[in-house]
Amino acid sequence: MTLTLPDEPALQSMSDAQIKLDLACALVAARRLSRSVAARIAGINLQAMDEELYQRKIPFFTEEMLEQDLATLASFPGK
Description:
5 helices
């Protein structure tokens, strides 16, 4: 996919890598992409993506995910 951005002065100080990372983080924040897909878009590994999301205070573990995990744990024998 090719994305063409307008010649905006605000973007001229940003590298392609920074724009990709910002876009990937924004799409994770909007719940449009998973962390792993966002990492591939940004050209970084998953650990680096998680660190970037943490630094930006973008949660990637939702309450729904927690509820699903707790329900799974509760279904194990001996619980």
